[in-house]
Amino acid sequence: MTQNPETEPTTPAPLNSAEVTDLGALDQGTYAQLRTVRSDARLELDGTWHQISPRYVVSQIVQNLLFLVFVAAVAVVLAMVLHQTWAWIPAGAIAVVVLITLVILPRQARAIGYMLRDDDIVFRKGILWQRMIAVPYGRMQLVDITQGPLDRAFGVTQLKMVTAAATTGVQIPGLTQGAAETLRDTLIEVAETRRTGL
Question: In the beta sheet, which residues pair with residue 161?
Fold first, then answer.
């Protein structure tokens, strides 16, 4: 019994070495340059405390004021248009909480800091309830930089370190773009050397 050549299974042709190693093909038709580049600077693991940018406070104040305007607009619509006067009570409570947050925000920002030591990074925050976290370099799985639209407008960003244990993940807000990239590159470089020693 003969098989039809059209129905016979075909094996894919093996890839030659030129196709595998042609890295230029990855960049064809893409943008010429990324917005952010890997920095060449490296932070010293000297146990010095570093703080965040004061622009973080301005960014948070603007975000809280925008939220306050939104709450006020919703309360006005509910009270004036829909005649739901009870809306003033939660709106007032939210406004009080936001205003208290705005008052203590500069002091909270000054309490945020991080320190690079030989084996770990230490992060601290809080005024009344202070928290200090030490994350070993060898346990880091991911270093992520995040920027929202308003943060980008004020030139600040947030760096997040993810470890195997979810409770030890650390987020450092209010870093400048350059500081975040330098810290990310330092953490990645040091984490690689610590992991090889495990």
Answer: 143, 170
Rounded to whole angstroms, how far apart are CA atoms 51 and 118? 19
Query: Is it true that domain 51-196 has CATH number 2.30.29?
Result: yes
- Beta-carbon contacts of 147 under 8 Å, excluding residues fewer than 6 positions away, are 156, 157, 158, 177
Could you give the C-alpha distances from 155 to 33, 53, 56, 176, 187, in angstroms and in order?
A: 20, 9, 9, 6, 21
Q: Where are the domains of the chain?
A: 51-196
Q: Dig out the tokens for 8 from the structure.
A: 């016979």
pLDDT digits (tens, 9 = 90+) for 70-101: 999 999 999 998 888 898 999 999 999 999 99
By CB atoms closer than 10 A (0-12, 13-18, 19+), residue 8 is exposed
DSSP 8-state secondary structure symbol assigned to residue 29: T
pLDDT in tens, 135-162: 888 888 889 999 989 999 999 999 999 8
